[in-house]
């Protein structure tokens, strides 16, 4: 999978996305400054959300349209939430250009076909399907038909939902698909992160996998990296004090930067499957045990556990040979501290 100039595969570094979402708080200037801060923090990409309240829902006060799911947004209508949170479409070109100037990949989550068409005109290099849209198969088909990489969050998905979404992409001839493990709680409890799923989805569906994270802190993204995540997305904000619907579970520049560093260190620590030793490791074998004369021995004397032992350092004969030499006689005088060698046997 290639998004803009960023190659994403099982051996690539993690593609780290800063999610702008509603964290501009209605200010274009804040949105641009957030993009600049994301670059400073080490993000590879900035992601927008392309919708309006009218493309997501209807303006209705009936009970069904009042949020009451145990979230931080309970009590609001869907329409009022999305009306306060959306990123104006007339900002998008400016934000895409600002990201490009910073050397960041910029793409978005479309929430209906008109948003896809709009983003196509901006030459968006990829698309993200939000967790709550994974059941919208016609939308996924339309997105996939554009031939761009498709990243799908699985926050509320059953296994059947995931399979239907993947099939929708494949029907459109698009196999450039990645799945993100996600817990759709805001913020998400760390005990519900279930990061073992990152590896399981990669093996089960033979796709690139990653994490869309709403937990607090960096622990879950680092664990995801260790389980093979190649894409990590976190909500990003200049300062939580500016408020907004997503502020409470968004990372500041310092926090995001610390997360990026932790992920990059985790990548180095994971390494590769290799049983050979580095030069430093070979030098470390000086501290291994080996067979040494620990008590002066006269020629013809019998070797016992009293005069030859397995001790540090590791320059003598391998300890595995101890059973073979005990009871044998030495052919010369050996002083304490001599590396034992087969040549000292009759």
Automatic annotation (TrEMBL):
Residues 290-346 form the AFP-like domain. It comes from the Bacteria. One of its GO terms (biological process) is carbohydrate biosynthetic process. PROSITE patterns: AFP_LIKE (PS50844). InterPro entries: AFP_Neu5c_C_sf, Aldolase_TIM, PseI-like, PseI/NeuA/B-like_N, Pseudaminic_synth_PseI, SAF, SAF_AFP_Neu5Ac, SAF_PseI/NeuA/NeuB. Gene3D superfamilies: Aldolase class I, Antifreeze-like/N-acetylneuraminic acid synthase C-terminal domain. SUPFAM superfamilies: AFP III-like domain (SSF51269), Aldolase (SSF51569). GO terms for molecular function: N-acylneuraminate-9-phosphate synthase activity. PANTHER family: N-ACETYLNEURAMINATE SYNTHASE, PSEUDAMINIC ACID SYNTHASE. This is N-acetylneuraminate synthase. It comes from Algoriphagus aquaeductus.
């Amino acid at each position: 999978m290639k998004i803009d100039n960023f190659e994403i595969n099982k051996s690539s570094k993690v593609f780290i996305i800063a999610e702008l979402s509603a964290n501009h708080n209605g200010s274009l200037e804040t949105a641009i400054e957030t993009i600049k801060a994301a670059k400073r923090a080490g993000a590879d990409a900035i992601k927008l959300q392309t919708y309006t309240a009218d493309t997501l829902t209807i303006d209705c006060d009936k009970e069904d349209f009042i949020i009451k799911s145990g979230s931080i947004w309970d009590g609001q209508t869907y329409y009022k939430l999305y009306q306060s949170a959306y990123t104006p479409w007339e900002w998008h070109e400016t934000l895409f250009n600002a990201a490009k100037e910073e050397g960041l990949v910029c793409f978005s989550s479309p929430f209906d076909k008109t948003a896809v068409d709009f983003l196509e005109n901006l030459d968006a290099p990829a698309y993200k399907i939000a967790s709550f849209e994974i059941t919208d198969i016609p939308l996924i088909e339309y997105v996939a038909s554009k031939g761009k990489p498709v990243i799908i969050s699985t926050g509320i998905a059953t296994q059947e939902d995931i399979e239907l979404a993947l099939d929708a992409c494949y029907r459109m001839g698009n196999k450039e698909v990645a799945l993100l493990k996600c817990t759709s709680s805001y913020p998400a409890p760390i005990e519900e992160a279930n990061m073992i799923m990152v590896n399981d989805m990669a093996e089960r569906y033979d796709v690139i996998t990653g994490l869309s994270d709403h937990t607090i802190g960096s622990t879950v993204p680092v664990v995801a990296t260790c389980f093979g995540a190649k894409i990590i997305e976190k909500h990003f904000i200049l300062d939580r004090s500016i408020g907004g619907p997503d502020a409470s579970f968004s990372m500041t520049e310092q926090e995001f930067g610390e997360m990026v560093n932790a992920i990059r260190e985790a990548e180095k620590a994971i390494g590769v499957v290799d049983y050979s030793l580095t030069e430093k490791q070979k030098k470390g074998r000086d501290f291994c045990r080996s067979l040494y004369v620990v008590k002066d021995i006269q020629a013809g004397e019998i070797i016992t556990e009293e005069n030859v032992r397995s001790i540090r350092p590791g320059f003598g004969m391998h300890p595995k040979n101890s059973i073979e030499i005990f009871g044998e006689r030495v052919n010369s005088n050996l002083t304490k501290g001599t590396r034992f060698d087969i040549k000292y046997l009759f």
